[in-house]
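Listing S7. Sequence submitted for prediction.
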Amino acid sequence: MEIVNTDAEGRLILADALAFACKNYNPDYLFDYATLTGWSERLHCHTSFTYFTLNETFAKDIERYNNEYAEKSIRLPPWVEYIYYIQSNIADVKNSGYKCNSGGLMASMFLMNFIPQKYRKNWIHFDVRLSSYNNTVNIADGFATYLEIIKGI
């Protein structure tokens, strides 16, 4: 892996964990929750979460639960062709898409590299905001949505 952004270290650990889970547990579903990017938090004024999935059913479920629980989210576009931005000339992959400054989308593309093709359709990457920042109840936004997605499978 080529390190082009030393501030994108969390995704390295998460990528390893996702690869380990796929290799050793053959999961039916794969969900990860992380505060990988400040970009995600800045994008929507600290009031919601972003997520990446290739699964249209999951995306519709998330939107439905958002409406039910008055939560907000922004789906990162499932533009897998943007994986081009993290291709490296000297390694398998770069840890950031420095030519494309979409932190959340580039983090998702990076993580997807470590998930075998057969698991990608049942994977959601949730990029959550810091839970205590500007939050009187000190709980992560989207919690009800996350819970319902897990309960629904």
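Caption to Listing S7: primary sequence and predicted structure tokens for the chain studied. The first helix runs from residue 10 to 25. Residues 10-151 form a domain with the Aminopeptidase fold (CATH 3.40.630.10).
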